[in-house]
Structure formats: structure tokens, C-alpha cells
Inverse folding.
């Protein structure tokens, strides 16, 4: 009696699956059509780029963001007075000349052929406006304390004078801030509804923003009147694809042309003849930082404890296991940059016996409990597990306190931590690295008078790189023997793109070079 | 009936008030704030403070609440602290994509769940039944992100039939809808099965069969119609889980819905955007609840609106 029903139901199920299959099949046909379409008209050269990005910018008002994901877009839309090249030397961008009559004055001559994307001419008033709003405390720019200038003034329409309070060798590289148009950008940042500049910016760069749908797509179109002449690619579509696996699948399927692949797929991808893979050193520094001013105890103020923390872990093993492309760092200055001094850097090799001795001497022979605060990324959870087992061997019970990023950041900035693990980025001048550890003003509150004096003196030396380097060498020696923290790694950046796409990528220049990129 | 609807709407007012208080306090109780996210990882305390001041986060908390609620009453949900976007239009713009996804996943879960549930009940204690029950259990237990990634591996990576991310065409919706709909498909299978078994035991089914009616008429006309009520309830309740579950699925498939957006703004602590989003979600819930209650009356005339 039920037989016919069963048949009927089976038919229904089959129909549903068939429906789904036709949907799938349909997709297949479309892909094939596309492939044919591309191949048929005798290799028509593409003028667009589909870029699979990791994360959305937070804001596209360059004065209000420090996000690397915002910067990779801003680099195409805006220009700055100067910018660092791959050797970290500053090159002119909107400026054509620089005069420094004394050690605290920078007089820039500006290009006269630059226009904003709305057609208005770019003048010194825009530079003055940009730097004034960055320096205005009420504006709340995160760049304020990272821009070392005291005043800015227009000498004429195409000349600006910037001054610093003291001679400051890091001032020039801090003048890489993107310039915004005075006639459009707001002078009050968080006034609700004041304008749409932060999501609809107008710049002077090779590309203008035509569309930004948050957490979806940013479309950039070539600016025909760009002062260096128009770029080669006509449109750049930047799609946000947050999941590594999804982005990788889309890259392999050819639905996106350029993307950051997952780290563990780099070897496979390097063997794939359809892609170019580039691995580039970053200026990012990821330490396990130590709190030198803990509110409840001074255990970490004992140099023996800090040294023991350094000796107790095998950094090489940890880094190569969790971040295969990264390299171990020993102080915050990236190895290979001019200020790094290998001889002056004390490197703590893995030595658990020495760690135990030091802890014994410091009076913690029977054990010690510490905690580490960090965000809950998969890598950090792995790190927590490895650290726990290394430290358990020397009698330290380490609690790995992982939480969502912004909660972790909040705890760290409040000084509510014993150890933390998080990265520091955007450091072009050694002072950017070193100034984070002077006078107890940094997040770790490290404060060594001898070290402070050296760093503060070094930054005032302008023009004599060797003299400056000598002081940084001494500083590196002090901070590393002092075990100011537990340096861990310098990360690498990796990008992969379609072999037919010609793109010169490196971490410092990043997307800036997209203006010269083209399809074969 | 009209009085009932009016009553339900009036009852919604204190609920909405509570929602505003709870969302506001929860968000401000969360550790981390937008100023910290803006300042970055190496900021000094005074820098964070300056940004906090500029963002207006240093005003007393009740004052911040009051200005948010007064804005709300004027229909103004404010502006993002992150990029200055107006909250309401930005969220509303993204809502259709998510509703479309939720709808598609409904279609998937009903199209799979109801027939498999019926089959399983009719063929109770057979191999087909065990298979269907296993399928239901699997559907409920599989995490949607994992199922999504596995589909992606097969259909995007190996076969290259479907795009792994984005939106716009029917092809884009297939995998997200399946990933999101699987759990409810399992649940609906089980609900349909147990409701059908219950009904199939009833006297009127035996009567219908002994009258000599064809089996499919007995099953679809007599049994299914009566078994459907609990299933409809479950489907209604599932809407909430779907809206919640859409966050993960949208993230995995880079689908431009409201869920992914809300998730990102939550991580960035963009207070006005998060509150606006929670408020809109709460309104949808209240609305759906009222609608479900009303539909109930049509399906089951014995339910009275007193």
C-alpha cells in the first residue's frame, strides 16, 4: 500500500536534487563560457585587476587610520610629501625639493602639476591643513604622537615649511602622512554626519575610489590626470575575502588575480606554473613583551627573572613550527636594516638549566606563576601551548590568557598584563622602534636611564649616520642584556598572483607599485 | 483579532525599551573600545585618551544612552565611529542580501527536511528510516563553517563548478544556502518524522485507510496537514538561529550580508553600528513573533485570541 507513496516521495527528493544539480551545472557552463570568451578573441590584454584582500579598511581618511589594510588602498588614492622606498630611503612624492637650513627646519617645494580627483589644484594649503589637523589634539589622529613636527606653515602656494622642536632624525620619515584636500576633508573627525570623506575620499593618487561597499568590495578607477601620467590598469577591484581557504580557492580557480595565500600553501603554490609567489620581509616586530611596571608585584623587575624567561624557550623551534616563513628576532630593530648591530645584540639561546639557575638565584626556585595576554588567533593558541610546556620545565606555571583582539589590546594598553604577545608595525626609522622603550612611556614601561639617554641623543644626530648607529649599538647591547622583553619573530609577507600579471611587489612599497603593474 | 494585534503591538513597547537598555549596557560592558582600536597596538595612554575624548566616549554613560535613545526616537541611529557612515541606511542596504540567504536556506531546509521526514516516518524502522535519521543527526551536528569549507573544496576547488565567494547570481547562493540550511534541514526532518508518527497512530488515519483511500491521500491529506503545525513552529523559531548562523556562513563565503558586517563592526567596537544592528535584529524578531502568533490562528482555528 505504501509503495506508491514511497515512489512519489523518491521522485520529489530526486527532483530537488536535480534542481540543485542543474544550478551547479549552470555554474559550470558559465565558467566554461568565460574561459572560451577570454581565449577566443586572440589574447586581448586585460586592463583590470581583481584583488582578493584579507580585511576591509577601517576608514579611508588617512589621518584617522593606522591599519595596514587601509594603507594598501590609501597608497593608490593619496600621495604624501615623501615616502620610503624598498631601502627605507625617503623619496619625493608630492614634493620636488627639500631644503634644510638648520636641523629643525624642513622647507619643501611642491609639485605644481597635481590635481585632486575632483579637478581642484593641489597647493601648500592642503599640506598645512593636513598636518594641522593631525597635530590638533581634539581631532584625535592616531598619527599625532608619531609625527615629529612642531609647526607647519605655507611660505607661498607651492612651498611649505615644517619645523621640529628639537633636531630629530626621525622627523623626515614621519612626514610620509597622506595629504588630504582642504576643501573636502573635515577638520573635526567624529562629528556625526559631517561628511562622507572617510568612506568617499578624494585624493591626488593614480586611482580614484568609485565604490566602497564595506566588507565586500572597493572599486578603484584610474585617474586620467595623474601627475606622473595615467597608470596602466584601468580598474582595480578589491574584494574582501576574510577566510584564507576561500581566498585560496578563488585564486586557484582564477576568480581573483592577486591575493595573500595561506602560509602553509606557499610551497605548493611556488611549484604551480600559473602563479608568481613573492615573499618579502616586513618591518613587523612580534615580541613576548614584559610588563616592567606591574601594579601588584615586582617579580618581572628582576633582571634574572627576565633573562630566565628568555633562556627557557627555544625560539627557533617555536617560530619555525608556528610561522614557517618568519625569522627569529633578537631586538626590535629588524636584522638587515642599517641600525641593526648583530655584535651588540645579546641572543638568548635555549638553555633551560641556566633559566632554572637564574630563577633559583632570584628566589623562585620552588616555582612561579605568570600569565600571557594575547588575541585568540589559531597561531596564538598554539603559541600559548608551546610556551606553557617550555616554561613548565623550568618551574614557571604560565597561564595563556587568550581573548578577542580588541579586549586583549584594551588590557595591554591599560597595563593590565604580565606578559603579552602582539605585533608592532610601521617602523621606518630606528627611532620608531626604540622610542617605544624609553622613559617608561611605552606599553611595557621599560625604563633604563642609560638606555633612555642613548636613544634620546641618537635621534638628535642628523646627517651623521655612523655616529647615530654607534649610539644605537650601545642601546641594543643594554636592552638585550637587560632582557627588556622576549623578542620572538619578524614576520614575512607573502603575495601570489597570476603569472601573466606583471607586478613588482615588496612589503615597504606594497600596493604603490600597482600603478606600474600590467598584464602580459 | 484587531484588539489582539493592537495588544501585541503595545506589549512590544516595553520589550523594545528593554532591548535598548540591554544592548547599550552589554556593548559598553565589553572590554575594549573604538578609541583603542583606532590608536593601534603601540599607542600611549594619553593618545588613547585624546581619541576617546574626540569620539565623545568620555561623557557619562547615561548621557550617552540618552542621546542615543533621543536619536532613535527621531529615527536617527547615528553615525559610525569608524568611517562616519550613517548607521541606518548602511545596515538597511545590507539586509536584503542576508534575507535572501536566509530565505534560500529555508527553501533548502524545507525541501530536504519535510520529504525526508515523511519518508522516514512512513518507512519507520527500516533501512531508509535509519538512513534518514542518521542524515538528520549529521545535519544538526555538522558545524556550518566546516560543511561550507568541504563543499568549497569539492565544488570550487576540485570541480570548479561554483564560485567560492561573493554574491550576485544563483550560483553564488547555492553553497551558502546549503551550509546554512543543513542544520535546520536535520531539525525539520526529525520534527516532521516525529509529528508524522504521532499523527499516523491516530484513529482517523485508521478510518481513512479502512475506507480504502489511497495511501498517498491518507499521508498527504490526512496526516501531513495535521503534522505540519509543530513543523511550522520550528521553522518560525529557526529564523533566529539563521540570522545568527548567517554571520559564520557569510564570513566563510565572503558573502556581503549584514551578519559579516555586524561581526566586523563588533570586533572594531563601532558602538553606533553594533547598537543599530542589534536594534534592527530585535525589531525583526519581535515582528516575526507577532506574525507567527497570528499565522498560528489561521492554521489551528482552536487557538483563540483572548
Amino acid at each position: 500500500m505504501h509503495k506508491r507513496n514511497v515512489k512519489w516521495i523518491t521522485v520529489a527528493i530526486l527532483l530537488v536534487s536535480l534542481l540543485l544539480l542543474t544550478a551547479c551545472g549552470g555554474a559550470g557552463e558559465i565558467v566554461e563560457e568565460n574561459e572560451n570568451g577570454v581565449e577566443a578573441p586572440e589574447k586581448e590584454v586585460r586592463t583590470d585587476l581583481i584583488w582578493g584582500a584579507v580585511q576591509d579598511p577601517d576608514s579611508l581618511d588617512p589621518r584617522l587610520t593606522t591599519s595596514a589594510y587601509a594603507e594598501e588602498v590609501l597608497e593608490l588614492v593619496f600621495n604624501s610629501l615623501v615616502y620610503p622606498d624598498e631601502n627605507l630611503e625617503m623619496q619625493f612624492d608630492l614634493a620636488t625639493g627639500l631644503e634644510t637650513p638648520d636641523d629643525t627646519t624642513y622647507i619643501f617645494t611642491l609639485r605644481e602639476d597635481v590635481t585632486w580627483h575632483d579637478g581642484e589644484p593641489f597647493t601648500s594649503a592642503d599640506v598645512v591643513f593636513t598636518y594641522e589637523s593631525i597635530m590638533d589634539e581634539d581631532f584625535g589622529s592616531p598619527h599625532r604622537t608619531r609625527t615629529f613636527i612642531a609647526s607647519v606653515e605655507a611660505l607661498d602656494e607651492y612651498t611649505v615649511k615644517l619645523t621640529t622642536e628639537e633636531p630629530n632624525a626621525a622627523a623626515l620619515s614621519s612626514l610620509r602622512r597622506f595629504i588630504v584636500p582642504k576643501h573636502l576633508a573635515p577638520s573635526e573627525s567624529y562629528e556625526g554626519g559631517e561628511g562622507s570623506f572617510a568612506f568617499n575620499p578624494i585624493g591626488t593618487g593614480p586611482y580614484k575610489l568609485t565604490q566602497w561597499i564595506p566588507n565586500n568590495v572597493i572599486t578603484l578607477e584610474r585617474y586620467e590626470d595623474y601627475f606622473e601620467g595615467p597608470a596602466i590598469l584601468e580598474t582595480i577591484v578589491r574584494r574582501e575575502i576574510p577566510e584564507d581557504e576561500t581566498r585560496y580557492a578563488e585564486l586557484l580557480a582564477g576568480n581573483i588575480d592577486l591575493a595573500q595565500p595561506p602560509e602553509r600553501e606557499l610551497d605548493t603554490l611556488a611549484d604551480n606554473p600559473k602563479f608568481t609567489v613573492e615573499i618579502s620581509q616586513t618591518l613587523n616586530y612580534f615580541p613576548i613583551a614584559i610588563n616592567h611596571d606591574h601594579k601588584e608585584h615586582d617579580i618581572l623587575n628582576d633582571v634574572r627573572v627576565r633573562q630566565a624567561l628568555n633562556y627557557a624557550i627555544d625560539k627557533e623551534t617555536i617560530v619555525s613550527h608556528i610561522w614557517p616563513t618568519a625569522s627569529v628576532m633578537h631586538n626590535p630593530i629588524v636584522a638587515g636594516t642599517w641600525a641593526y648591530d648583530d655584535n651588540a645584540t645579546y641572543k638568548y639561546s635555549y638553555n633551560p638549566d641556566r633559566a632554572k639557575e637564574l630563577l633559583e638565584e632570584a628566589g623562585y626556585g620552588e616555582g612561579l606563576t605568570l600569565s600571557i595576554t594575547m588575541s585568540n588567533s589559531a597561531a596564538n593558541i598554539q603559541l600559548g601551548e608551546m610556551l606553557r610546556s617550555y616554561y613548565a620545565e623550568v618551574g614557571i606555571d604560565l597561564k595563556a590568557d587568550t581573548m578577542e583582539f580588541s579586549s586583549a589590546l584594551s588590557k595591554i594598553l591599560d597595563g593590565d598584563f604580565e606578559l603579552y604577545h602582539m605585533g608592532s608595525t610601521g617602523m621606518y626609522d630606528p627611532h620608531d622602534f626604540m622610542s617605544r622603550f624609553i622613559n617608561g612611556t611605552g606599553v611595557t614601561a621599560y625604563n633604563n636611564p642609560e638606555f633612555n639617554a642613548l636613544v634620546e641623543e641618537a635621534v638628535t644626530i642628523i646627517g651623521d649616520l655612523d655616529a647615530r648607529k654607534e649610539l644605537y649599538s650601545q642601546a641594543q647591547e643594554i636592552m638585550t642584556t637587560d632582557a627588556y622583553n622576549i623578542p620572538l619573530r619578524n614576520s614575512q609577507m607573502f603575495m601570489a598572483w597570476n603569472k601573466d600579471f606583471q607586478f613588482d611587489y615588496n612589503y615597504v612599497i606594497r600596493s604603490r607599485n600597482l600603478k606600474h603593474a600590467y598584464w602580459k | 483579532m484587531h484588539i489582539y494585534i493592537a495588544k501585541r503591538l503595545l506589549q512590544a513597547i516595553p520589550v523594545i525599551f528593554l532591548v535598548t537598555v540591554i544592548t547599550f549596557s552589554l556593548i559598553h560592558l565589553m572590554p575594549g573600545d573604538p578609541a583603542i582600536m583606532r590608536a593601534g597596538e603601540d599607542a600611549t595612554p594619553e593618545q588613547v585618551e585624546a581619541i576617546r575624548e574626540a569620539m565623545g566616549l568620555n561623557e557619562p554613560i547615561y548621557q550617552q544612552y540618552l542621546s542615543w535613545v533621543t536619536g532613535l526616537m527621531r529615527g536617527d541611529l547615528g553615525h559610525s565611529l569608524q568611517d562616519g557612515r550613517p548607521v541606518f541606511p548602511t545596515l538597511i542596504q545590507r539586509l536584503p542580501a542576508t534575507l535572501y540567504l536566509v530565505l534560500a536556506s529555508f527553501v533548502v531546509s524545507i525541501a530536504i527536511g519535510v520529504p525526508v521526514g515523511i519518508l522516514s516516518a512512513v518507512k519507520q524502522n527500516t533501512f531508509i528510516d535509519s538512513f534518514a535519521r542518521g542524515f538528520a543527526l549529521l545535519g544538526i551536528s555538522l558545524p556550518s563553517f566546516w560543511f561550507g569549507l568541504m563543499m568549497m573544496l569539492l565544488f570550487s576547488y576540485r570541480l570548479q563548478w561554483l564560485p567560492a565567494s561573493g554574491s550576485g547570481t544563483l550560483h553564488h547562493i547555492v553553497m551558502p544556502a546549503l551550509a546554512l540550511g543543513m542544520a535546520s534541514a536535520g531539525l525539520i526532518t526529525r520534527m516532521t518524522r516525529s509529528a508524522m508518527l504521532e499523527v499516523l497512530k491516530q484513529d482517523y488515519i485508521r478510518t481513512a485507510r479502512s475506507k480504502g483511500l489511497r495511501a498517498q491521500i491518507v499521508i498527504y491529506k490526512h496526516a501531513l496537514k495535521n503534522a505540519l503545525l509543530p513543523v511550522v513552529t520550528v521553522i518560525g523559531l529557526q529564523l533566529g538561529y539563521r540570522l545568527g548562523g548567517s554571520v559564520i556562513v557569510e564570513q566563510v563565503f565572503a558573502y556581503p550580508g549584514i551578519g559579516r558586517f555586524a561581526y566586523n563592526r563588533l570586533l572594531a567596537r563601532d558602538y553606533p553600528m553594533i547598537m543599530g544592528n542589534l536594534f534592527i535584529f530585535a525589531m525583526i524578531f519581535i515582528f516575526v513573533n507577532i506574525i507567527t502568533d497570528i499565522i498560528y490562528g489561521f492554521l489551528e482555528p482552536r487557538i483563540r485570541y483572548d
